[in-house]
Protein: NAD(P)/FAD-dependent oxidoreductase
Amino acid sequence: MTHSSTPGIELANGSRIAVIGGGPAGSFFSYYALEYARIFGLSLDLDIFEAKDFTRAGASGCNQCGGIISESLVQDLATDGMIIPSDIIQRKINSYTMHTEQGTRVIHIPSNEHRIASVFRGCGPRGCLDKNVKGFDNYLLGLCHKKGARIIHKKISTVERIDDGILVGHSKTDVNRYDLVVGAVGLNKRSLNLFKNICPAYLKPRVTRTYISEFMMKPADIKECFGSSMHVFLLNLPQITFGALIPKENYVTLVLLGKDINKEVVQRFITSNHVRACFPRDFPVERTMPCQCYPFINVSGGHHAYADRMVMVGDSASSKLYKNGIGAAFITGKAAASTAIFQGISERHFKNYYAPICRDMDRDNKAGELIFHFTKLIQKSPLFKRGILNLIAREQADRHSAFRMSSALWDTFTGSAGYRNILRRFLHPALLGGLLSSSVISNLPSFNSHDYEK
Ligand SMILES: Cc1cc2nc3c(=O)[nH]c(=O)nc-3n(C[C@H](O)[C@H](O)[C@H](O)COP(=O)(O)OP(=O)(O)OC[C@H]3O[C@@H](n4cnc5c(N)ncnc54)[C@H](O)[C@@H]3O)c2cc1C
Structure:
């Protein structure tokens, strides 16, 4: 069956696709490949191989993540008919609370709607006894299963090219031929190395270590101390670019991003007065958390993540710097699926129709690097931090304000907008002028520091 104007390798009725990795990127690829094939009248055989069991609590069922589903992703999913069910959502987030040594400010969503969701990727942290917890990754796999994908809970250990396809296997004796192989293995080093065999030009993304842990708390305490707000910290602590506390139903998730986060950095953060003050007075924050990990996060995209009959998606290919990685998995998964179904599966097809999407994300991340560089400078400057708090307070108090600082910070925290777009807004003369004047005013001796109280 020929369905492309450009010659090359194409999928046909009965073609077999192996998707290695059933995280968001693998699921989004599978969902859209099967949906586009249905529209196109193409019958495909699609297997998703996933090593983890997302119905289990703890590490064996978890793709370590803060679990924030960005505003833009919630909307994109809804547009395509994927309304995240309420039993997957742990808490609807309606505001961000920014903490600095100089004070605290709450930034509300302009429309005051609850459009950001916090979720668990698996079935909750180690030791989680709540049997009602349902994870986001399993929800996505379920959608793929409904579309006709076969979910195989096996870890793939062999990927090998042959003349008319690619062999994929989870043991020496159980190897199958596929027409197309999709690499959605996240940042798993060993699994990424498998793809070097069939795509020697592929370079893995550069990564850095982060930190996640979960504080188990009474729902009433979470409501009282955190509300429906994600708490972000702009503290002058070395190695930390971004720290956040994300409220869920029975847990609060701590996420630390920065440069090579380790035990000492974590300890400094959780024992700092400003973090400690977010918890109930007698809550033992220093006690070892039952579930904590130091996962990697992308600091650059991969290179040349495609070849004949092979494409990589999500973290394995390109992601958004520090934010909205699930949204990036959506973009790359969907773009690779559209290329494979509507264009073809040769290297040239992926180069022409898929690679530009990854390159655009990588270029956007350059603007993100600049934003996080400025953030680090601001972290060290009490003068600018006072100015930002003052400006946010003025904007939030005035319904008719342009909300320039609030909305630029909002999109930086949520990852909902592109970094180039956010950078342009941060550099708007009106915002810079407002920041400068509020920094000067709020640092005058006559300025009332109580204005910074929550
Ligand atoms: C600290 C931290 C906090 C984050 N917080 C957020 C957040 O709040 N919101 C957000 O949008 N993003 C966040 N991210 C980013 C987000 O987690 C990732 O971008 C996203 O999970 C990428 O999806 P993926 O499908 O590409 O990879 P993954 O989610 O890593 O999925 C890869 C899957 O492949 C499977 N796999 C690997 N090798 C094999 C194999 N050989 N055989 C079979 N299966 C295999 C794994 O088991 C896994 O399920 C965060 C990341 C970190 C590190």
